[in-house]
Amino acid sequence: MADPERLSRIEEVDTPYQTDVDSTDGTTLQSSQDATGDENGQSTPATGRSKARHAILVASMFMTLFLPALDQTIVSTALPNIMVSLGAATSSNSGYTWVGSAYALAQAVVMPFFGQASEVFGRKWTFLAAISIFMAGSCLCGASQDVAMLIASRAVQGMGAGGITGLVIILIGDLVGTRRRGKYQGFIGATWAVASALGPVLSGVLADHVSWRWCFLINLPICLACLVVNLLFLNISRPTKSFRQSAKSLDYLGIFCVSLATVMLLLSFEWASIGISWGSPRIVLCLIISVCALATFIFAETRAARPVISLRFFTHPTRIGAYASAFFHSIGYMGLNYYLPIYFQAIKGESAAQSGVSMLPIVLMFGIVSTGAGYLITATKRYQEIIWGSSVLATVGCGLLIMLNETTPTAVVVVLLLVAGIGVAPNFNSLLIPIHASLDDTFDNSAIAMSASAYSFIRTIGLSLGISISGLVCFDGLRDLDAGTTSGLSISQLIRSLDSMDGADKARTVRVFDAAMRHVFIQVTVMMGIGMLASFLIRRHVLGEKVRSDHKIVMVARDQDRDGQKERSQVDERGCAGRT
Fold first, then answer.
1. What is the CATH number of domain 47-251+305-535?
2. Of 366, 509, 559, 569, which has the maximum CB count within 10 A?
3. Residues 268, 99: contact at Cβ < 8 Å?
4. Location of each CATH 1.20.1250.20 domain in the chain
């Protein structure tokens, strides 16, 4: 029997469709007759169209997700060209830093807001708003005339990216139950991993052969297509409350405090990564504000009627382990993703395009293994062994990368990248499955979406910190270089300067890079190891088939449903007339 509390929540959504609280997929149904087909069991045209709409909608979600993942890393290789084109000083590290940091900061800050907004205002229009913001930011980035405008535009783009990233995961939760969600989470992980890894390669190609502006403008036609598809196909139940009533139910204090704590934390690490002392007043002040904001956030969430991130999400060993493992996995992954190309370019002497080819083994593993792990979880209905095994292999694989140096044979490099890729790939999004599986009936339906939003938020903070922490380690290793020749140079500029160095200076610089990269790989291994230990807290839970969501995605066209309702009404009227 359905829970009365759940039924009361379902009554709050305004949709002309029957909402099936026991549905095993996230769709609303016209009627049992319409949904099942004819008496011979054959699929009706409506069912066929539903499957087509499902495929188109899911493909559009993954394509939409591909863009924020791509833009997380796409500027890295093109930054020297961008700075020269916009007239920035060649020795300015702040510009290099903030073009990437503005995007990451904005992306992390808005995730809790978009997660709660989708519950309050409805999924469809919140998702379309996120796509539109990302599209506007991409357009502004491509039209930027100076560094300040580019940084501001990247912040706008990051706001849209944060909404897209969190909402795609939430929408998948609306679409299928936990038991079938593994393969979808695998696709999400593969999409994110491959896009992030391809970003630096595509950046270099566009900057060298077309224009750096196309690193951003390439998003526009894809965004427009995704916007149209979701506008037409994402038919979803929506709240009946007015905009004013919905706005009043947002957790403004919680959103503000968690956003402030995030900004101050990421700012302190960002400044430290460009050489500012941890004891400097600005970093100390940022850390103090971050701690105070976090304490206020925790206090506020204990009293909020509708908390943006419920503290109950962190009261079970499974959820604690999964969130912690995702956080440290993200730090390690981003260090690996950002600094492996530097190994190939600075130590192996490869160009940006060549380093992209050298990265193919790990990129392919990211895509193939992430997808395969998702299907395996769906088929076996077991996630513990896959998460534990991949965490151990990720730690071992990243540890083996410490052996890489200037003389490592290509075949050995390929094998090591394959091992690391197989270990890192499965846990991109599979860690969300035990989080959802551990949410029992004491949690309402909105907890599925809000726990997914918290997961995306924590992963994004990890990704942002991963860049800064690995940068700290790398720059610390590069201090052995001659300060007179390298002062103020970014890593990209330093790599470019290798070609103009004489033999002795070049050999010494490569050796210093070699030592610095070894330290980076050690740091990545430590992060993966901590994530592995955290994953052992994850317990086994039954993977339910039912979708727990008050936002049902409609897979049958509205006009068709209205025609069906009209026809059934006419039949009922004729039946009543016959009986009288």
1. 1.20.1250.20
2. 366
3. no
4. 47-251+305-535
